[in-house]
Design a protein that fits this description.
This protein is of the alpha/beta class. It contains 7 helices and 5 strands; from the N terminus they run E-H-E-H-E-H-E-E-H-H-H-H.
């Protein structure tokens, strides 16, 4: 007999997984409470490193169904999600995602959906690479400066350099200037190089 499981992932304790569970019930899935797994973990963590999801996999068997409200419950990375869905399909477990029209991701239509999502993710990566490369070319030609705007004014940087030269610690200066110790250390490094 096929059993239905729910996996709900949230990144922080403050986020509500109850909304996801309500959506799943509203979609007509009747899930026994002991088959609902809620995990508080970053979506960037791969499925293999999620302890509650791993425990869920141990409970599930061929013919079972896994329901997620949104694809990001399975991860933010399209590659990781694809690997997870393929593993579940190999185990004979169906995976439904409500946000994608309740499509079974292990079916032919679901694989097509996953292919489109993967293609869009790849397009976004390629566009980001092109934009970065274009920015680097502009930087080399002098059309653009590749850096963040300074967090400290020129006068503040001068004061910091003077205090560093006087032997004050980076921690004390950072606290007084309301900046990070790392910024002070960078200024010290550049001061040392310019000698």
């Amino acid at each position: 007999m096929s059993r239905i499981f729910v996996y709900s992932r949230v990144s922080t304790i403050e986020q509500e997984s109850l909304n996801q569970l309500d959506e799943i019930k509203a979609a007509g899935f009747n899930v026994e409470p002991h088959r609902v797994v809620i995990e508080i973990v970053s979506g960037s963590m791969t499925m293999t490193r999620r302890s509650r999801f791993s425990s869920l996999l141990d409970k599930m068997k061929q013919g079972d169904t896994l329901i997620v409200a949104t694809l990001d419950s399975l991860g933010r990375d399209a590659t990781d999600v694809g690997i997870t869905v393929a593993k579940l399909k190999q185990e004979g477990i169906r995976v439904y995602c409500l946000a994608l029209g309740c499509v079974n991701l292990t079916s032919s239509a679901g694989r097509l959906t996953m292919s489109v999502i993967d293609a869009v993710a790849q397009l976004e990566r390629n566009l980001l690479i092109e934009k970065t490369q274009s920015g680097l070319v502009q930087t080399k030609t002098g059309e653009k400066i590749l850096s963040r705007p300074p967090t400290l004014s020129h006068d503040q940087q001068k004061i910091i350099r003077q205090r560093l030269a006087g032997g004050e610690s980076a921690s004390v200066i950072a606290r007084d200037m309301k900046t990070s110790r790392q910024i002070i250390m960078l200024l010290d490094m550049f001061r040392s190089r310019s000698r």
